[in-house]
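In the previous chapter we treated chains in isolation. Here, by contrast, the input contains two separate entities that must be folded as one system, with a combined length of 780 residues.
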Amino acid sequence: MDNFTFYSPTYFAFGKGTENEAGHYVKRFGGHKVLIHYGGGSAVRSGLIDRVKASLEKEGLSYVVLGGVKPNPRSGLVYEGIELCRKEGVDFILAVGGGSTIDSSKAIAVGTVYDGDFWDFYSGKAQAEKSLPVGSVLTIAAAGSEASGGSVITNENGMYKRAYGCELMLPVFAIMNPELTMSLPPYQTASGCTDIMAHVFERYFTNTKEVEITDRLCEGVLKTIIKELPKVLENPNDYEARANIMWAGTMAHNDICGAGREQDWASHNLEHELSALYDCAHGAGLAVMFPAWMTYVMHHDVNRFAQFAVRVWGCEMNYQNPEETAKEGIARTKAFFHSVGMPTSFEELGAKEEDIPKLLETLQIDGRTEGFFVKLGRKECEAVYRLACR
Amino acid sequence: MDNFTFYSPTYFAFGKGTENEAGHYVKRFGGHKVLIHYGGGSAVRSGLIDRVKASLEKEGLSYVVLGGVKPNPRSGLVYEGIELCRKEGVDFILAVGGGSTIDSSKAIAVGTVYDGDFWDFYSGKAQAEKSLPVGSVLTIAAAGSEASGGSVITNENGMYKRAYGCELMLPVFAIMNPELTMSLPPYQTASGCTDIMAHVFERYFTNTKEVEITDRLCEGVLKTIIKELPKVLENPNDYEARANIMWAGTMAHNDICGAGREQDWASHNLEHELSALYDCAHGAGLAVMFPAWMTYVMHHDVNRFAQFAVRVWGCEMNYQNPEETAKEGIARTKAFFHSVGMPTSFEELGAKEEDIPKLLETLQIDGRTEGFFVKLGRKECEAVYRLACR
C-alpha cells in the first residue's frame, strides 16, 4: 500500500426533506450573503429554489441568484458569477444542482477572492490560496463533486475542458435528498451511474499491489450500482434504490476507493475531449471510452481484470485461462452499459472517427502521457479512440 | 434507508514514517502547547515518543507528557491529565497509542475546558460544549477511536465502564504508520481485529431494509480482516497486511459502515461489563459475546444471517433451508475467532457463570433494554450471557 493522506471534511445531511435545512447549514459554516447558483429551469419549476430561499430567509440570510449552468459548465458563466459575487459582497456559494453546478460554484468561489483570471488555476499557471466556502443541495447522483475538491470547466474560447482541484475547494456541506433525483430522465440517470462506476474504475485498475481494503470498497460500490440502477430505470420513484445510488456516488469519489493506491484517470481525460467537442453527457462518453480502454490495457494485468470479472460481475473464474475470464468481465461491463441505454461506441454516441486527430490535438498529448495503470502516449491514445469507434 | 448525517473531518496521514510529521499536523490544527499522552513504556523504549518529541520541537512547539494509560482507561488518570493541562496551559492533546490512549485523551480534552467534573458527560448529566483539539499517532489497529467522536472510560469507583461521544471529540488528525503495529503480540493483534469486526457487526445486523451500499461496505471491511489477520499472525512484519488491517479499522468505525441504518450495540455494552469486571481485552470479550448474541437473535431475521454467511464467509446458500446457512455463518465466525487465538466462551476468557448477576447489576439493565436489532431486557441479556458461558 502506498503512503497517502485522506481528508473528507464535508458535512453530509442525507434524506427526505433535508433541502429545508440549507439555511441552517449555511449559517453553521459561516455564510451571511449567499450566491444561489443553479442550472436550468427545472430547479425553479419544481419549487426547489423557492424552498432553498425560504430556508435561507428563515435563518435571516440574504442571497442573490445566478442560474444557467449547462452540462459541461462554461467559463463564461464563471466570469459572470465572480463579477456578481464581488459586486454583492457574497461570502458563501450555495450550489443547487448536479456536478456541473457544483464545479461552476467552486470555480466562482476561488475566482472571487483571486486578483487574477480564475482560468490561471485551470491552466496550471497558479495555485489557489483561498476560497469562499461552497455548500451544495445535490440533485443528480453522478459526479461526486459534492465530496471532492475537484472541478472541471469548459473554456468557451476553443471548447476544451480542464480540471483543477485543491483542499480549499472541498465543499463544507452537502445536502442530499434522493427524492430530488427522481425526476431525472432515464438517460441522465444511467449517465450519472456510469460516471459513478467510472470513478471507481479509475481507482480499481492500479499497479499498487495488496490493497485489499480499497479493492473491496470499490467492488462494493460497483455492485451497488449494478443492482440498483436497473431498479430506478424500471421505477424512477424507487426511493431506496435512488438513495443507494446517491450515497454510492459520494463513496465513489470522496476517495475512500482510492486510498493507498495509484490511480489512472486516462479514460476520464480521453472522454473530456469527447464531451467538449460533441457536448454529450460525460457519463455517456465514459460508457464509450471505458470498454475500449479496458480492452486496450487488459494484458498489462490479466489477473486484475479476472478479479474484476469474478468479484464484481460474478463470473466463474476460468483457472485454465484467466484471460477468458478477464475478457468476460469487460464484455459484461459493455453489455451492462448497453442494457441501461448508454452508447458504447463513437457511432452510437454520434462521434466521428475522422475527428480523432482533432481530439488528440485538444488533448495536447504530444510529449506527455495519459494514465498510470498503463501510460498512454499519442499513439496509444489514438488506438484507444479507434477501439471505441465500433 | 433512514435519513442520516455523516461527518468525518479527521485528516489522515497514513504510511511509513508519518509519525515524524506529528509537529506539522499539531501546528496546522492550531496547537502550541501540547500534552503528549501515552500508555506503557513500550512507546518510550521503541523510541516513538522521542521521535514525536523531536517532530514537535522541530516546529517550535512545547509539550508536557503524561504516560500510564492502561487498557480500559481509568478515570483517575483523566483527572490527573486535566489538572496537568490546566496547570501548564495545554491547548492540544496528542494521543500516542491505541484506542485506550485516544479515549483517555478525549476525556481530558473535554474535561480541561469544563467547569465541573468530566464524569458528568459520561454519566449523562451534562453535554460538552467545547473541547481542546485532539490528534493521534495510532499504534494499535482496533478501536477506531482515531476517527470517532466516542470515548469509553472505566470509573475506578466501582469499576464500571461508560461511553460518551460528540462531534467536538472527533480527532482533528490521525497519523497512522502500520509499522508501529508490528510489535504488537499476536493476542493483542487478534483482539484488535475482533474489535474491528465487532464494529461492523453492530452496524450490519439492522432492521433497516434496502441499504445495499452500506451492506457492501460492511462486507468489504469484514472480508479484508478475514483475509489479512491470519497473514500477520503468520508474519507479524507483513507491512501490507498490517496496512490493510489498520485502514480497515478506521473504515469500520468512522461510520461509513453505519450510514442510513439503525445500529445495534447490545453486544458491545454486554462486553463492557466483562472487561470492566475481569480487566480482559475488549476484543477478547467481544469474541465471547458475539457468537452468543448472534445465536440468540438469529431467528429475528434468518435471511440477514444467511446473507452474512454467503457474502462474508463464502458459504453456499441452502435455498431449501436458509436457517442452516445462517447457522453456518455463526459457526464460521466462532471458528475464525478460535483459529486466531481468541476465547469464545466465559470459560476460555476466565469469566464465571456465577458472576452473571453481578454483570447484570453493573449493566443497570432494569427498566430499560439493550440493542435495537432485537431489544434485550434483563431476562434476554441474562440468556445471552448464559449462551456465552460455553
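Chain B touches chain A at residues 1-9, 11-18, 178, 209-214, 216-217, 219-221, 223-224, 227-228, 239-241, 243-244, 247-248, 251, 256, 259-260 (CB under 8 Å). Chain B has 16 helices and eight strands. Compare these points with the single-chain example from earlier in the chapter.
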